[in-house]
User: What shape does this take?
Amino acid sequence: MLIVQESVFIKLTEQQTLHMRRIADTSKTTGPAVFFMHGAVENGKIFYTYSNKGLAPFLAEQGYVCYVADLRGRGDSKPAISRHAHYGQTEAIIEDIPAFIAKITEREGKPPAYWVAHSWGGVLMNSVFARFPQYINDVKACAYFGTKRSLYNHHPQKYLQGNLIWYFLAPILAKKHGYLPAKSLKWGSDDETQKSHYQSMQWAKRKPWLDSDDGFDYAQAVAGLSLPPTLHIGGVKDKALAQQVDIEKFIAESGVGIQHLQMYGKKHGHQYDYDHINMLTHACAKADQFKDLVAWFERYSATP
Assistant: This one.
């Protein structure tokens, strides 16, 4: 086994360069590509470390070729988010993610066969399927960790992290600084533009699944689509950001395709009670959700 990581850069505009981390086992025959998308106030490192820990290196050990994306301004994409960054999630959906898919296709000779997301990344992925349904036929299966669009739970942590921080304090700070300095506030691993925060906040508030830029109706577009078979992974200790009810509501608005929700915790026979972050970072995840994700992919590997 020889896991090798390399950075892949995409010149998006004269001012913007996107980054992906390619992670693969060079001792094995090249397998299918997997595309990874992080969530809000995060970057691609939720899926890997340089010492080959995390989901992407784990899948590389199984023979998959992993491409972990950093959205514009996040992670190793340049320049970093500042008050001069005026893009948001609309640009992520219609520009960044298609650019990632095109680069993977160029590098591997075919589009990524599997898509994996954490948290808000799953909302962006389904939004891409709504805008560009031609991608659906290229994807055999998806796996979303802790993904919800709108918050429906009533746990006290939701009112703290959602209502107080994301809905009340974050807009004030984003206006003051010109962007949301979530990293320095220790609210996440990366910052958000003022626009991306505003757009995600509206959808999290149970507002209609509409694009604030051009009015595109994602809900209407997705309703009649059969998205790739999707495994939804939830953690029993994820009380604020993706409780079972929140994920179920997202599933209900995600088309007519095959979707399965599995909650992970000791009461379900797993080794650990997972939360929103450690569902991807805890050592026990390999024997629980990571193993089940591989089985999910293999179940649909023969899909034309």
Observations:
- The longest strand covers residues 3-11.
